[in-house]
Design a protein that fits this description.
The complex is a heterodimer. By secondary structure, chain A is mostly helical. Chain A has two domains: 4-193, no CATH class; 195-229, no CATH class. Chain A has helices at 4-8, 20-34, 42-57, 78-89, 96-106, 108-131, 171-174, 180-193, 211-224; strands at residues 154-155, 163-164. In chain A, strands 1-2 form a two-stranded antiparallel sheet. In chain A, helix 3 (42-57) crosses helix 6 and helix 6 (108-131) packs parallel to helix 8. The radius of gyration of chain A is 18 Å and the shape is globular. Chain B is mainly α. Chain B has one domain (2-115). The longest helix of chain B is centred in the middle third of the chain and has 24 residues, at 63-86. Chain B is globular, with a radius of gyration of 15 Å. The relative contact order of chain B is 0.10. The chains are: A mainly alpha, B mainly alpha.
Chain lengths: 229, 117
């Protein structure tokens, strides 16, 4: 891992060595985050990550003390800031109406990419906070324009957003298929921090925690977030 | 559902209520389950109990397992947001296989349940 991003994710203050594949996955997202996406510039993506990070830190406050988001209209439409903040703090409140408003304001590809940036930032920050180490500074945005690319084969699977129709795995694997590059880095995080190749195996050998121990943590996190899925 | 299935795979009597109920109860049939659940909850909420929960878990399970626990906390705080922000419905096999305990544990009252007809 020769890049600056990889060095940033050394996690030297952690109480134990963090596996290389976790560090590499975090670095891969950081590098992707800084670059233009399909719908947003690098500066916009890093701004969304900053908003997600700030909002995540507000979760300890009751809603009436969190203050209002302060969007910068020179960066992105105001609804983008609201959407990032809602994903970070109150994602269980996102319903079909909210998602439709977001998509009307931003466009579907832009909404999905914004979701992808937000959730990956929170996953990495939540890991650092759980470890008790400092969060890694956000990357410097790289110049360039969004590609406008949109994958083929998307359709209605009953979600708020269009997803790949030709797909055999669990729905969470195609939830962000409208932003394939970001979905790829997200599943890099999932594979290193949870499971991909051994997902279907109920008994994990040669792993530090047993499968039930990992699933207990997953269930508790899901319950605290009031996640039905 | 994966908690139950993985417990069954090793003949462990996993108690799901301890994992998803309002209050963390006991180990739930999972080694160090109480400490793992307390850590997951404190880290997800960012509560004042996090430092103690972290220290207790680290002392009990050691550094390597602690890193795995922190990684699981991190990635699931991302995964739940993917599911709810995109509104994906529950996968059909999971939907069919979880009906009993979803109702029993009150999971059908979670707002995300409306995403699955």
């Amino acid at each position: 891992m020769p890049s600056a991003a990889a060095d940033a994710f050394a996690y030297r203050d952690a109480p134990h060595v963090v596996r290389d594949d976790i560090r590499a996955a975090h670095a891969a997202f950081w590098e992707r985050l800084a670059r233009p996406g399909a719908a947003w510039t690098g500066a916009q993506r890093v701004a969304f990550a900053a908003e997600a990070r700030a909002a995540w830190m507000l979760r300890t406050e009751p809603p009436w003390l969190r203050g209002q988001p302060d969007p910068d209209p020179t960066i992105a439409p105001a609804f983008a800031t609201l959407a990032v903040r809602t994903i970070a703090l109150d994602v269980h409140k996102i319903d079909r109406v909210f998602a439709a408003e977001a998509i009307a304001a931003l466009g579907e590809a832009a909404y999905v990419e914004l979701v992808a940036v937000s959730v990956q930032t929170i996953a990495i920050d939540a890991f650092a906070e759980a470890l008790g180490v400092a969060r890694v500074p956000l990357p410097t945005p790289l110049p360039g324009e969004p590609s406008g690319a949109r994958p083929e084969g998307l359709g209605d699977i009953g979600a708020h957003v269009a997803c790949l129709l030709d797909y055999a795995g669990p729905n969470v694997g195609r939830a962000m298929s409208g932003a394939p590059d970001d979905n790829a880095t997200f599943f890099g995080l999932v594979g290193s921090m949870y499971a991909v190749t051994d997902f279907m195996e109920m008994v994990w050998k040669d792993r530090p925690l047993s499968r039930p121990q990992v699933e207990l943590i997953a269930a508790r996190v899901s319950a605290v977030n009031e996640c039905f899925y | 559902m994966l908690l139950r299935a993985s417990g069954q795979a090793i003949d462990a009597a996993v108690e799901i209520e301890g994992a998803v109920g309002a209050v963390v109860k006991g180990d739930g049939g999972v080694p160090c389950g109480h400490l793992l659940a307390q850590f997951a909850e404190a880290a997800t909420r960012g509560s004042e109990e996090l430092a103690d929960a972290r220290a207790a878990l680290l002392a009990e399970v050691g550094g390597e397992r602690f890193i795995e626990a922190a990684a699981t906390v991190g990635v699931f705080n991302g995964l739940v947001r993917v599911a709810d922000a995109t509104g994906i419905p529950l996968d059909a096999p999971t939907h069919a296989g979880s009906a009993g305990f979803r109702q029993e544990l009150g999971l059908d009252a979670f707002s995300g349940a409306r995403n699955t007809p």
